[in-house]
Amino acid sequence: MREVAVIGVGMTKFGKWLDKSLKDLGREAVWVAIDHAGIDPRDIQYAAVGNSMAGILLGQESIRGQTILRDAGFGGIPIVNVENACASGSTAFFSAWMAVACGLCDVALALGVEKLFCGNTALSIKALSTATDMDFEGRMGISFPGIYAMRLKRHMQKYGTTRHQMALVAVKNHHNGSLNPYAQYRNEVTVEEVLNSRMIADPVTLLMTSPMGDGAAAAILCAKEVAGRYTTKPIYVAATVLNSAPITDPTDPKAPNITKVTAMKAYETAGIGPEDIEVAEVHDAMAPAEILNIEHLQFCPEGEGGPFVEAGNTAINGSKPVNTSGGLAARGHPVAATGLAQICEVVWQLRGEAGARQVDPVPQVGIIQNGGGSIGGETASMGVHILKR
Amino acid sequence: MREVAVIGVGMTKFGKWLDKSLKDLGREAVWVAIDHAGIDPRDIQYAAVGNSMAGILLGQESIRGQTILRDAGFGGIPIVNVENACASGSTAFFSAWMAVACGLCDVALALGVEKLFCGNTALSIKALSTATDMDFEGRMGISFPGIYAMRLKRHMQKYGTTRHQMALVAVKNHHNGSLNPYAQYRNEVTVEEVLNSRMIADPVTLLMTSPMGDGAAAAILCAKEVAGRYTTKPIYVAATVLNSAPITDPTDPKAPNITKVTAMKAYETAGIGPEDIEVAEVHDAMAPAEILNIEHLQFCPEGEGGPFVEAGNTAINGSKPVNTSGGLAARGHPVAATGLAQICEVVWQLRGEAGARQVDPVPQVGIIQNGGGSIGGETASMGVHILKR
Known about the structure:
The structure is a homodimer of 389-residue chains. Chain A is α/β, with parallel strands linked by helices. Chain A has helices at 22-37, 54-58, 64-72, 88-101, 121-129, 134-140, 144-159, 163-178, 191-196, 224-227, 258-270, 289-296, 305-310, 327-330, 338-351; strands at residues 4-11, 47-50, 79-83, 107-115, 199-201, 204-205, 214-223, 235-244, 279-281, 365-375, 378-388. Chain A contains 15 helices and 11 strands. Chains A and B meet through helix 2, helix 3, strand 3, helix 4 and helix 6 of A and helix 2, helix 3, strand 3, helix 4 and helix 6 of B.
């Protein structure tokens, strides 16, 4: 298996892009990434494209990647359309990594693109619910704020995690988003505003949720052995692990957690431990989920995520900066674009290109955690990636 | 890159399965393939699942593979949902091949599953049209019989290909289907019946088209170095090439044809020429397209496909047996299942397990050609695979 480097990344600003099509968004992210990598676009010999909702929302199924990439000027290469709900971006990254790792090509493109604003909010919400098993969770009417709320309620009961600690995550991530020109929300919020905003699914309030959004993000991967041809700042893929929900009894309190299992495999593959991680992007589709995820990533012992956040460890200048981009809650969460936007942020951080939100000193190692969908009480798909300079 | 073998295949009978769900169909194909491979199912450490239409037709987007495979008993492994319209099955095969070739795992599963009968035929037809670029072809109202009709008309004008020759393909493939217990249509048809059946898009008549259908097909792939652990009859992947439409001017008569370009790359990769092919499954979504495809695969010179068929070369006992399964026109064409059903047929032929339609002597080398979607006047996605004993 060949070693793989990320040599360029790019994304659109996430937001409500009523005047941009799926193609417009995808084309922009691809070409920004190509510029960042400084490559001849003809060197790209494989593309994986993640999109989750265009079939239901825009009536474009099947060959979504071909339509977007042809519009961007690409054809005559293998194009694989991949999907794994909110982890579709991670899945595209994983697929492009495989193509380079197995020697199929030297340079590959991973693109995630999503357009949730389709002129029909009810349809968008319905489409988002199709990221569950539609024979069970989906048709019962449960939606993701409800799923997260149940997980958070259990955490509160078991470990005493407080609403104040949960609000602090939203406050920190909105602060980070205010420093990120690509973020959908650039405004700061206070603990009081977060706690007093409309209750969505107790304990999740409106300002803890991630917004509906449009956007795209892309990464250019290449074989380590040729990375020097393109860049002086390659970022190496130390591990990229994709997983799906284990088959467990969801009522079993000792059932393995998919984030933890996947992260442990990534650490083992990379030969890097949680203590070595200097920047992290985690999947906070509801901001307080960050507390659960940092525990699963072993940044702190189980149950201590709340106090860990409260002590400021996860701030940009803390011991373990988390979601410097603003995370899903502030940078935004156009489903299939998210995983690659997380990759973008960690690559920028490791290259010292993160501007006002740069971790100082420039970190050596970063981790990305990106979950998608729900099945049988567990996240359906999980990607964990460790990148290093 | 490691060499890869197919150690087991399985499929459902294709047909109108009003009483079977997507999960029922997928589960059946997976377990039949596992039985055929004789493996412990826990050895499967990667799965690629192709499905094209469940988002629009059944309301299940995003995590289709997880829902199907969990129902079949699988979790805790990487599951990648892939899509490339009618080439989704090939794409799943290609993705599973990459996972084994790159050393991620020793044993991988490729599954293609489709349910076109959703209780609303108009919706099914609309969904099928989303395998085009919906900003162009799709919204203009063109559908696949029309696209194929234009290609065939051009072939008739340029080379004198006759309606009789085109009907002979349908007759041969229905004959082959009558010998295949997995085929949707088991009835023989005559040239007169084909030519006198209802005109769909001149020159394509009803009995030349592939039917609406439900079904699933699966393959188990493993590293060549461990194949001996599982089977005495490994079938090796000599080449698996995935491609997308080149960017060309569709009015340019000298524009490269995607089937030809992809096949030439597969021959080159395999170190095998068209003269070595002893059995072929080609994408006859409209039966006469077989004439075009065998030319692109270099079985005969360009323009001579009609006479080549007329001389009986493509019959089971001919010099170049094509679509021994009955092809898409008779075995059926549940979109994402087709590519893997083609793999099933060639694997059975190379193992001498094709029953009444077995090519004699048992062939050494077979080829699969599987195209999907349409974009800019060309097939959007193309998979060509060469398998050998």
